[in-house]
Specification:
By secondary structure, this protein is α+β, with helices and mostly antiparallel strands. 27% of the residues lie in helices and 24% in strands.
Length: 295
């Protein structure tokens, strides 16, 4: 006969432990033996697996009841206390009901009144949904993919993120909450140093040289998909916005906005003697006077 592992001993709790005591012990041990805290330690890794196995069973009312029958033997129950204690009648006297867990779950009992009452085991209300915050770089939110997260209870999860996540979006991880509840990850997109989201449009500023602004031509512009070439029109002005169609952020229908590129004219910090002579010649010949309207 296969020996049943003692999950109570693994978690270091008594056999009549409440759900809160089991949860508290699991969190403490999970933090102590987590693989991220003990890299390369096989003993800690095996201990962590045993802790999770024990908690998954003892934190579930049905699984724990079935496990207790295997551990303590048919017809026996673990000692109970507190809210799990055997019910008493109206006079405070212990009802002499059978101790078999299956009886508590299914048996109909006929008291001396005219109504029939169904006696059931006390239900656990420990199943709770929880929420955790996850901040992602804009590029990661756009592309999606695998992301490892660390929870407050010491657990580490690898999550497959969908592409095109938006700020404030919630992702549901079924069964990863407390006692079988769900975990909701609330997504926050970190502020980007170059791109700014404006709905589904993406805004950025691109510097060009004075000659590029005057003569026009192709310049490389960063996008979420990588570098693309954008044609700068001849005589473009500082502050003028150009549009890269369908290079923005996707919406719920997977339709993308545009990337708005604002032109900035950047002056060189240093110029060569040859460049200086050319600028002098241009100055001698140029007819444009930006202050004409002020005179």
């Amino acid at each position: 006969m296969q020996q049943v592992r003692n999950y109570y001993a693994i978690l270091g709790v008594p056999k009549d432990a409440t759900s809160e005591e089991i949860k508290k012990s699991f969190r403490k041990l999970a933090r102590q033996y987590h693989p991220d805290v003990n890299p390369g330690d096989k003993t800690a890794e095996e201990k962590f697996k045993s802790i999770n196995e024990a908690y998954n069973t003892l934190s579930d009312e049905t699984k724990r009841a079935e496990y207790d029958l295997r551990l303590f033997g048919k017809g026996k129950r673990r000692p109970t206390r507190g809210r799990d204690a055997i019910p008493r009648n109206g006079n405070g006297v212990r009802n002499n009901y059978p101790q078999d867990q299956d009886f508590w779950r299914f048996q109909d009992y006929g008291p001396v009144t005219s109504k029939r009452a169904k006696v059931v085991s006390p239900s656990r209300s420990g199943r709770r949904d929880v929420e955790a915050k996850l901040t992602l770089p804009l590029e990661k939110a756009y592309r999606g993919g695998r992301e490892r997260i660390r929870l407050e209870d010491g657990r580490s999860l690898e999550v497959e993120m969908p592409p095109g996540m938006i700020d404030g979006q919630k992702i549901r991880l079924k069964g990863q909450g407390l006692d079988g509840g769900d975990l909701y990850l609330k997504i926050t997109i970190a502020t980007h140093g170059f791109f700014a989201l404006q709905g589904t449009d993406i805004f950025c500023r691109i510097p060009v040289t004075p000659t590029e602004a005057i003569l026009g031509g192709a310049v490389e512009v960063p996008t979420l998909d990588g570098l693309v070439k954008m044609t700068v029109p001849q005589g473009v002005r500082a502050g003028q916005r150009l549009r890269l169609a369908n290079k923005g952020y996707p919406d719920s229908n997977n339709s993308r906005g545009d990337q708005l590129v604002e032109i900035q004219i950047a002056m060189p910090l240093e110029i060569s003697e040859e460049e200086l002579e050319l600028y002098k010649k241009i100055r001698e010949k140029e007819t444009f006077n930006p202050r004409q309207s002020l005179l």
